Amino acid sequence: MKSQIQRNRILIPGAALATAILSVSAHAHQTFLLPDKFNYPEAESVSVALTSALAFPNMESGPAEDRIAYYSASIREEGIKDVSFEEGETALTMRFAAARSGTAVVAISSKPRAGEIPPKDVELYLDEIKAEKGVREAFDALPGSPPLQRSYAKHAKTFLCIEKCDDAENHASPVGQKLEFIAKADRSFQLLLDGEPLAGKQVTIFPFDGEMSLVATDEDGKILVPDALSGVIMLSAVWITLPDEPDGVYHSDYATVTVDLDQLP
């Protein structure tokens, strides 16, 4: 597996409502963190890009720094305060010094953004969130043909190594994002919602090269990455919070994590 990540590659949401999970569409934009490389020498400057693209690991669109609601960077569970950001057309780049060896975790969450699903696309959206019959009937009972109101936030994370990842604790510690992945032992990952395991939810695995695959979290919110996969991958999941009333706002939280499987302790 190449240690250096090649940039800009071209690869070809009546009845009371509860919460639901959105199936990840192959055509949906993914927002993720991608470091220049997943293993850095100690004292070198670490560079991690936040980008959105139709296909991982392409880098197509970089958010402005003022879109960021939260960020953190740590090495061996020690937080790093001296970070900088640089805006670019294809990525927002975060930089900090690799001041010590061990596992590094970088996380960024965006501010919520709101919008409308046009009436002609509402049926497709309700299909994507696997809305129950009562949800559809309640929305369909609204007068006229209204758009569906939605909001969303993106939560991205990456794991990398300074010299080597010989400590598993930082991988396994949540950083406090609404929806996030943590790494467990033996190539397993756990999906957390508000810090609690999320069982029975769909996770999409995107290899650096190859076809994506779908898995579901077990009763402990865990998935196991197949042995056939190696190198850099991205995991992606989405959680939809449905409103109490059908004319309310349907909110989605998107989570991704990137990691080099060959670097895990």
Description:
This protein starts with 18 loop residues before the first strand and ends in a 5-residue tail after the last strand. The protein has helices at 119-128, 133-140, 169-172; strands at residues 19-21, 30-35, 39-40, 45-53, 68-75, 78-79, 84-87, 92-97, 102-110, 113-117, 148-162, 179-183, 188-193, 196-197, 202-207, 213-216, 222-224, 232-241, 249-260. The chain has one domain (19-263). Strands 1, 3, 5, 6, 9, 10, 11, 15, 16, 18 and 19 form an eleven-stranded mixed β-sheet that branches. A four-stranded antiparallel β-sheet has the order 2-4-8-7, with no helix packed on it. Strand 12 and strand 13 (188-193) form a beta hairpin. The chain contains three helices and 19 strands. The radius of gyration is 19 Å and the shape is globular. With 265 residues, it is mainly β.
Strand share of the residues?
Answer: 35-45%
- N- to C-terminal distance: 17 Å
Overall domain count: 1
Question: Which percent bin holds the helix content?
Answer: under 10%
Order of helices and strands: EEEEEEEEEEHHEHEEEEEEEE
Q: Sketch the major β-sheet.
A: 11 strands, mixed
Q: What is the molecular shape?
A: globular
**Can you tell me the residue ranges where pLDDT is under 50 for at least 5 consecutive residues?**
1-27
Per DSSP, the total helix count is 3
Overall pLDDT level: 87
